[in-house]
């Protein structure tokens, strides 16, 4: 079965330079990013949760799958889905999540090794590997190359043991993950160490304050994919909150000077203008 989106998405990870995969949070932002010329898009569980009046990890699987389907249908670009930790405790449930993600139209997805439990935030390595394996086996049964990203979440939960993070990524690689991702890496040295320790393409999360590496810098380090997680959505909500505070606290409206114009939004999103 030919699946051009799946094939083009997989191929992006094996080009000489890194590509940026930005994270829209609704249909409008997906279309805007596609029209700008990006080659692929990824969902953001946090960004979407904010639009529902929730914080991250509070959206259930059914609602997230509906969101994935909406974004997959919104543009012609490949979509990779942020499916958190698979939305299931059992291996059968994990496998079902990734079958359903593919049915929703995504051609890639991620699985985290975070438990969602504050008292024990990261799965033990053996269990985490079993969960990645369940996801891998589910997507390998598809008739096209679905790109599975395995995430080691240590650094997002205050566990800065880089050796353990690398051990996890290597184990997920052995389990069959196509892309490896340790969100929360902060320095050039950490990123280089991870890239050199694995054989599969590495995704790096950018957009955090103080991370002054460019796409060219990351490409030169051997990174293959750059995502920004919820950063774009938080940038938009940051502008919204600053505008609200300006009105409430100062009674002024200067935020309108930086706002995109009504006419430009109409031009960008009205199909009759194309």
Computed CA radius of gyration, to the nearest angstrom = 19 Å
How would you classify the quaternary structure? single chain
Mean pLDDT over all positions = 96
Please describe the biggest sheet, giving its number of strands, its sense, and whether it closes into a barrel: 8 strands, parallel
The 3D shape can be described as: globular
> Termini separation (Å)?
33 Å
Order of helices and strands: HEHEHHEHEHEHEHEHEHH
Q: Widest sheet: strand order?
A: 1-8-7-6-5-4-3-2
The total of beta strands comes to 8
Quote the beta fraction: 5-15%
Kindly state the percentage of residues in helix: 40-55%
Query: Which ranges are low-confidence, i.e. pLDDT below 50, for 5 or more consecutive residues?
Result: none
What topology does this entry show?
Layout: H1 4-12, E1 19-21, H2 27-36, E2 41-42, H3 45-51, H4 61-74, E3 79-82, H5 91-103, E4 108-112, H6 125-140, E5 147-151, H7 162-175, E6 179-181, H8 188-197, E7 202-205, H9 215-220, E8 225-227, H10 231-250, H11 262-269
Parallel strand pairs: 1-8, 2-3, 3-4, 4-5, 5-6, 6-7, 7-8
What does this structure look like?
Strands 1-8-7-6-5-4-3-2 form an 8-stranded parallel sheet, with helices on both faces. The chain has helices at 4-12, 27-36, 45-51, 61-74, 91-103, 125-140, 162-175, 188-197, 215-220, 231-250, 262-269, and strands at residues 19-21, 41-42, 79-82, 108-112, 147-151, 179-181, 202-205, 225-227. It is an alpha/beta fold and 274 residues long. The chain starts with a helix and ends in a 5-residue tail after the last helix. The chain is built from 11 helices and 8 strands. Helices cover 46% and strands 11% of the residues. Strand 5 (147-151), helix 7 (162-175) and strand 6 form a beta-alpha-beta unit.
């Amino acid at each position: 079965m030919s699946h051009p989106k799946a094939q083009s998405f997989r191929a992006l990870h094996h080009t000489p330079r890194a590509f940026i995969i930005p994270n829209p949070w609704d249909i409008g932002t997906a279309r805007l990013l596609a029209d700008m010329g990006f080659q692929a898009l990824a969902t953001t569980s946090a960004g979407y949760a904010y639009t529902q009046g929730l914080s991250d990890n509070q959206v259930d699987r059914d609602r997230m799958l509906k969101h994935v389907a909406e974004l997959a249908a919104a543009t012609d670009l490949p979509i990779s889905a942020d499916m958190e930790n698979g939305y299931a405790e059992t291996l059968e449930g994990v496998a079902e999540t990734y079958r359903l993600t593919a049915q929703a139209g995504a051609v890639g997805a991620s699985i985290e090794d975070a438990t969602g439990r504050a008292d024990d935030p990261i799965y033990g390595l053996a269990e985490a590997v079993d969960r990645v394996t369940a996801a891998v086996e589910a997507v390998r049964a598809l008739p096209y190359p679905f790109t599975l990203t395995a995430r080691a979440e240590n650094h997002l939960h205050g566990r800065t043991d880089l050796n353990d993070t690398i051990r996890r990524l290597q184990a997920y690689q052995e389990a069959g993950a196509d892309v490896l991702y340790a969100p929360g890496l902060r320095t050039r040295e950490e990123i280089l160490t991870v890239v050199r320790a694995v054989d599969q393409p590495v995704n790096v999360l950018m957009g955090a304050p103080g991370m002054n590496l460019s796409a060219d810098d990351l490409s030169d380090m051997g990174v293959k994919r750059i995502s920004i997680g919820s950063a774009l959505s938080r940038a938009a909500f940051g502008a919204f909150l600053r505008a609200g505070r300006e009105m409430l606290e100062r009674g002024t409206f200067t935020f309108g000077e930086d706002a995109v114009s009504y006419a430009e939004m109409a031009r960008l999103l009205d199909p009759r203008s194309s």
